[in-house]
Structure formats: structure tokens, C-alpha cells
Amino acid sequence: MRRTVATKDVLPGARYGLGLISFPLSCGRVAWGHGGSIPGYQTRAAAVEGGPAAAVAVTSQPTTEKQNHEMFKVLDTALCG
Length: 81
Prior knowledge:
It is a single chain. The protein is an alpha+beta fold. The chain has one domain (5-80). It has one helix at residues 65-80; strands at residues 5-6, 15-17, 20-24, 30-38, 41-48, 53-58. A hairpin with a 5-residue loop joins strand 3 and strand 4 (30-38).
């Protein structure tokens, strides 16, 4: 699952493989996670090796790239803070 390929669809530096996405955090660590959405609802969950882990759920689905990046900023804050 950790054999990944680069993806530009999520955010800079993100990589994807078999259901897992990895993305760099502002503190220099790498987060691994997965997310999902249905109309009106979105979740993102991630963890760094050795901990911690965090999950974010919203009841208004992001409609812009900026809003999607905000979901990852919340995870970054939780995992690096």
C-alpha cells in the first residue's frame, strides 16, 4: 500500500497508492491517510508513523481547490501541533 506514485490532483508533494495517500507535513514528517466524500459530507483521516493520528469530518463538501487544501491544513495542524 505504501508503494506510491506522484499525484497532482490533491496537493503538492502528495503521492497515492492502493487506497493510501501520503503527503508532506509542515513539520517535516509524512502523513499517511485516506478520505472519502458523498454529497454534502467529506472526511479525511491521517497518521504519521509512530503517532499521532487525526480525522476531520465536515458537513459541507469543499467545492474549490483552496477549500480542499484547508482540510489538509487542519490535519497538518493536528499532526504537527
